[in-house]
Each structure stands twice: as C-alpha cells, then as structure tokens.
Amino acid sequence: MKKRRLPIPLILLTPIVLLVIVIVAGIYRFSLADETILAKFSQQEKKQAPSPDSVMQQVFDINTPNPWTISVPESHVFALIKQVDDKQEWASGSYDSGSDRGQVSVNVKQWLIESAQQHYLSVMTVSNQGSGVFYYLASFEYDNTRQRLLLNNAILLGDRIDIENVRYSDAKVQIDYRQHGIDQSFADIPAKVMKQQYRLNNEQEIVTIP
Questions:
Q1: Among 144-148, 165-169, 183-187, which stretch is predicted with the lowest mean pLDDT?
Q2: How far is it, in rounded angstroms, from Cα 23 to Cα 33?
Q3: Where are the transmembrane segments (predicted)?
Q4: Per-residue pLDDT tens digits for 99-120
Q5: Statement to judge: residues 74 and 21 lie in one domain
Q6: pTM of the model
C-alpha cells in the first residue's frame, strides 16, 4: 500500500497557523495593563506566602510565619505563645505533655527590654497543676536563619513573688521584688524585700552576680 502524501499547500499551512497563534498570544500579553499583571502576581504571592504570626508582629514588630514557642524550664515541653491580654502587658500560652501541663506568660510591656539587636529580656512566669507560680528572668534571641524567637536561658527568681522593678544598664540587671518570709503563708502578700543583680555574658545569657 502506498503512503499517502500531504499536499504541499497543507504542509506549508501548519507553520503559518503556529505563527499566527504566537502573534495573537503576544498581542494579548502586551495588551494587558501593567496593573493587571502585577495584581495577578500579587494574588499568587499572597496564596503562596504564609501569614505572619500575630503575636510576634504585635510584640516585636517581626514578620515571621513561625509562632513564639518557649522551652519550659526544667522540663522537655514547649509552650506555644498564642495571645496577648487586653492590656497588652502579658503574652501567654499553654503547654501539655500529658502528665505535665500549665501556662507560660511573658511580660511584654513594663519589663520587656531589648538588651541588644533582636535580643530581649523580660520576666516570665510558669504555672502548673499545683498552686505555684514560678517567676523567671528570661533572655530571648531571634534567630534570623530559622526565623524563630528562642529562649537563651532563664533564672528562677522565686515562687509567687511580687516584682516591683526591673532595671537594666550596661549589660546588668537589677530585680527589686518581695518574697514570702519564713513565717509567712503563701496565701499572704509577700513582705520580705529582696534585691538581686544579674549580668549578661557575651552570648546574652543571664548570669547571677553573687
């Protein structure tokens, strides 16, 4: 059986049709307004880019999709900081590892100090299933590579104490607070006046000054 050959005019017509399609597509592309093109790209970027974490943005003015998580001292669990109170004084979140659960709060107003660029100091509290509320002086660092705020270290101040003042100068911190005396019940208001000084080392970690 002989092969059927396409007529010469039909063979020539194929590249002509393709050329016409390319020309029409080009005319359509260049007929679009720049605003329309930019709007399309912006919509695609919005769909692809994750939203910044609201707490990180509100407290530190940092745009990162990663939430603020804190390693709970003396445990292997993490607390997810998800909210700031109505007075915008404390940011808090819960932790739960089954047998160990509670809440972590960080002061983000009165005692929040930026000790260096993207390094922060503040008072942190940790509560659990018991009646205790443990106060810490905590150091945080924002890791640009991981886009996450990390806990450098935390120094225990006391249980159910009353913080009166936090002073920072030249990499030194002084905490003025009241704690319960030997003869006091934890149900009473702390009465014993205390002062403790700390310093920051080169890694922005808190070190107690004897």
A1: 183-187
A2: 18
A3: 7-28
A4: 788 999 999 999 999 999 999 9
A5: no
A6: 0.76
